[in-house]
Predict the structure.
Amino acid sequence: MNSFVKAIKWLVPAVLLLPVGLYLLLAGINLFDSKPSVLAIDYQNQIARIKDTTSEDASNGYVFALGFTAPQIESPMALGKQRLKLLYEVDAAISTQEAELPNVFNQINNCLNAPESPSACVVTLLANPEMTALLTDYQWLISRYQQLINFDHWQDTAQFEYYHPLIPFTSLQAAQQLSFLRVLSHVDKLDPQHISSMLNQEMVFWQTVASDTYNLETKLIANAFMANNIKWGELVIARLGGAKQMKALPASWQSALPDAVFSFEKVKVREWNYYRYLIKGNSPDDAKAPLVTKFITWLLLPLTQQQDTANRYVELLNPAADLDSPASAKCSDKFKDYIINPFGKLLLCSSSPSLVSFEQRFRETENQRASMVSKLQQNILSQNQLKTKVIY
């Protein structure tokens, strides 16, 4: 009996100390981190260069967009510069609250997405006195949007905006809708070349944003605005006569979207920078996190080689790249493969990044462009043939 009690006394501490010992062993093994891979160094250099050169001058449309929600009597560029400075202060809670818009904007969205006859819906909408008043009251917002799409330069940052996106999608969408409704309200008085120039200017602006941004959310916003440019533009051109329709067709619609629009190389840099920030144990909600969460994070950090994890994340973002890195991004089912950087590898294997679904959205927009242009050209050809038959 005494032997059994003695065995229990030895066994219990041993069982309790075993995980502690294993933890300390793994922590000791992972004390020294990997060196940055070639592509990780390239990303680091890009991030540093972007931060040093992000332009605050009057030529950068990004700064204007940051301040787009400025009150009517204030300067969007001045507010944008303030927000850009705050963006580099990690603890700065940046306010981007957008003004609440009238309910009539829901009717505009419903019209644009009407499955049967969006054109008839828009005609009805423009006949509404409430819409006429809205166009008058928000003329300043329409003018501000025209100022924005006049920019031919967009340089944003790879800094992570973890509070919420800084580009005010709702306000920009409202401004775009009002701009097109203004055009539709007197489309019969406009020169087709003017319409072509307007459509082209907006499309080229959002192509520039999609090509040059480092922010995934901004890139997706740009894609949504390109798609809406095509939808609204089709409604505008359809209201013109056959001969005028061809003249109103913008140059940017008549060729495929540029390759840079489809590229996610710049987006990968910011996504990597944000992930690198998170694996250091940082979070925008750290101050509100429960003590248990903070304790678990503290325990797991020694089991995470931050640079090794960052190197592997680069490989996951660039699966086809020829990388000079000792790390392998492939997941393993063998325990021995998780001795080095165990938690970092588990993180990556449980949430592999994929941009395929986002890339598909841009292909859909390109298909929408090609289909719409083909349909318009066919309609114009049919109208011309009909006129020829009438003459003879």
